[in-house]
Design brief:
- The chain has strands at residues 50-56, 66-71, 74-79, 90-100, 105-115, 124-125, 128-133, 136-142, 152-153, 165-172, 177-187, 196-197, 199-203, 206-208.
- By secondary structure, it is mainly beta.
- The chain has one domain (47-208): Jelly Rolls, CATH 2.60.120.
- The radius of gyration is 22 Å and the shape is globular.
- Keywords: Signal.
- Residues 1-34 form the signal peptide.
- This is CBM-cenC domain-containing protein.
């Protein structure tokens, strides 16, 4: 795990067995049956997700708001917590399920923004986001640069509330059924006396189908 940073001011379609199909004589006038594609899943707004606050560790929710919200008419998930009740790490999960078809590629789109914590002169630390589908992580980002180059940097020098960075991630479903889509906010450990963790907002996600 990366060490906390110092002061910054706020603000395969499944293959089945082969079956022997009997030949049935039909009239030449009988129309062919066309297979209809499955509809593209609709993602609910964040108020319809299941929130675990926290999913692990301990938080101090009195210092900020973590949960669904509406900003300028847009549904958002926000994690705004200036402190935790323990020095260890903590997570918040935001979960829904999507009816996916194995072997099909989907594109998930959403917006993201961040804001540095207000430490009031005390050291502060980062916050990260991981997005997973069916238990596989498809996107990771942090409010500060991490040693792993695959972790994107969330823009923080933006107009808090309106300047979302667009994110698009394409993935292929490996299972058919109702598959979990999970946004996980990750807060690293914070020693006693530190001022808080950075903030993250995610805007309403959508799923695009081929």
């Amino acid at each position: 795990m990366d060490k906390p940073e110092s002061t910054l001011s706020r603000r395969t379609v499944i293959k089945g067995a082969a079956w022997s199909v009997p030949v049935i004589a039909v009239s030449a006038a009988a129309p062919a049956m066309a297979a209809s594609a499955a509809p593209c899943p609709t993602i609910p707004d964040f108020g319809g997700f299941v929130w675990a606050i926290p999913a692990s560790g301990q938080l101090n929710p009195s210092t900020g708001h973590t949960g669904p919200a509406t900003v300028n008419g847009v549904s958002v998930a926000e994690s705004i917590l200036d402190g935790k009740t323990s020095a260890g790490p903590a997570t918040v999960t935001v979960t829904t399920t999507l009816p996916l078809v194995a072997g099909t590629s989907y594109t998930l789109s959403f917006g993201i923004m961040g804001r540095f914590a207000d430490g009031n002169g005390s050291p502060t630390t980062s916050q990260s986001l991981a997005v997973s589908v069916g238990g596989s992580t498809i996107y990771r980002a942090s409010t500060r640069t991490q040693s792993d180059p695959s972790i994107a940097v969330i823009p923080t020098g933006v107009n808090w509330g309106t300047s979302f960075k667009p994110v698009t991630v394409t993935f292929t479903a490996t299972s058919t059924g109702n598959i979990p889509l999970v946004f996980t906010f990750q807060l690293p450990g914070m020693p006693a006396g530190w001022g808080g963790s950075d903030d993250i907002r995610v805007s309403q996600p959508a799923l695009l189908c081929p």
